[in-house]
Amino acid sequence: MRIVAALGGSSLLGCGDSPEASLSRRHIEDAAGVLATIARGNQLIVTHGSGPQAGTPSLQAAFAGGDSYPLDVGGAETAGRIGYLLQQALGNHMPDRDVVTLLTEVLVDGEDAGLAIPSKSIGPVLPMELAWSLARERGWHLSHAGAGYRRIVPSPEPREIVQIEAIIRLASAGAIVICAGGGGVPSMLECRTGKRQGIEAVIDDDLSAALLAVEARADLLMLLTDVDAVYRDWGTDVARPMRAATTDVLRGLTFAWGSMAPKVEAACRFVEATGRLAAIGSLGNAVGILNGSSGTLISPSRHAAEPDGLAAAGSPALLGA
Fold first, then answer.
1. What is the tens place of the pLDDT at every residue in 9-36?
2. Which among 28, 12, 31 is positioned nearest to 286, based on CA atoms?
3. Residue 185 is inside which H or E element, if any?
4. Adjacent-strand bridge partners of 34
5. 121 partner at 20 to 30 Å CA-CA among 45, 143, 292, 303?
6. How deeply is 29 buried, as exposed, middle or buried, from its count of CB atoms within 10 A (0-12, 13-18, 19+)?
7. Which phi and psi (to 5°) does residue 200 adopt?
């Protein structure tokens, strides 16, 4: 089967961790072991968020007193850095498989309303004084985050994966493909020439993963994060995990946009577009997600009964070992 596994930025770095190379390597090594299990006997396409790392190039330039990196260039740099670490770790786990990282452009609509309203948080949480100093100096927009502030930037809808045919060819040939890191490099077509150009924005990685899974004709989209399942009444005394749900049930519930809502939206988009399955759960329990013992399995609304694992929903068991 062809599986798109989307790793949340928090699952790669760890909630509250600083974006240091040693911590990134440790979390990525753990992720690679899980991904290797998923890849055995399957075609695997991996995409990932970038979390605090996404704003690092611009922040470094600001501290050095130089011009800020454009967000498309900074995003490409971050995707390359994380992709390299994932590629190396996966290659060590699976020396018999080719592992490739592909810098991926994702087209957006130049008229997208999301380009006019900064809404996507990037970079680490900064102390108030430093954050407002950078905002004044660099023209950054800020959002309150815990004890400090984070930079917020425009986040348009992903419309097209530019390198999708290359991704499909590589996956079909047996390579594990790491692509669309951090949501992909946001690009648009220049009206006069039709040439692609990068833009000052960051694409939501979950929504980009859904588009990638649809265009890659995946059999399963796995959204892997640091939470074990989708919960009803999250943050209350009666919170309980949902082991299976249809898209209409999920769309009837409310989730926090800063955490679970984008993943639920991405899962629903993929399932509604393809009639196939999506799953949300923790990276550490990915094997359990595949055998139906963990996570939340999302199926199309036309299914009258909630599925009990992948096999009951019409897909064969994925674990071959």
1. 766 765 455 555 666 788 899 999 999 9
2. 31
3. strand 185-189
4. none
5. 45
6. middle
7. -80, 85
pTM of the model: 0.89
pLDDT band at 314 (very low <50, low <70, confident <90, very high): very low
Number of domains in the chain: 1
pLDDT (tens digit, 9 = 90+) per residue, 155-211?
999 999 999 999 999 999 999 999 999 999 999 998 888 899 999 999 999 999 999
- CA proximity to 14, closest of 39, 45, 49, 47: 49
Tell me how long the chain is: 321
Which residue from 225, 194, 182 is spatially nearest to 53, judged by alpha carbons?
182
Three-state DSSP at 191 gives coil
CA-wise closest residue to 222 among 314, 155, 285: 285
Query: Which pLDDT score, from 0 to 100, does residue 57 have?
Result: 73
Calpha distance 91→102 (Å, rounded) = 15
Task: Give the Cα separation of 100 and 167 in Å (integer).
Answer: 10
- How far, in Å, CA of 310 to CA of 212, rounded? 21
pLDDT above 70: residue 317: no
Read out DSSP for 157-175? PP-EETTHHHHHHHHHTT-
Phi-psi group of 184: left, alpha or beta (phi > 0 → left; psi -120 to 50 → alpha; rest → beta): left
**Which candidate, 62, 35, 60, places its Cα nearest to that of 47?**
35
Q: Is residue 135 part of a domain?
A: no
**122 occurs within a structural domain:** no
What is the CATH number for 185? 3.40.1160.10
Q: What is the mean pLDDT of the chain?
A: 88
Q: Is residue 51 part of a domain?
A: yes
Instruction: Name the CA radius of gyration of the chain, rounded.
Output: 19
The reply to whether 23 falls in a domain is: yes
As a whole number of angstroms, the distance between CA 23 and CA 52 comes to 13
Q: Which domain holds residue 23?
A: 2-108+157-312
Residues 207 and 257: their CA atoms lie apart, in Å, by: 12
- pLDDT value for 21: 63
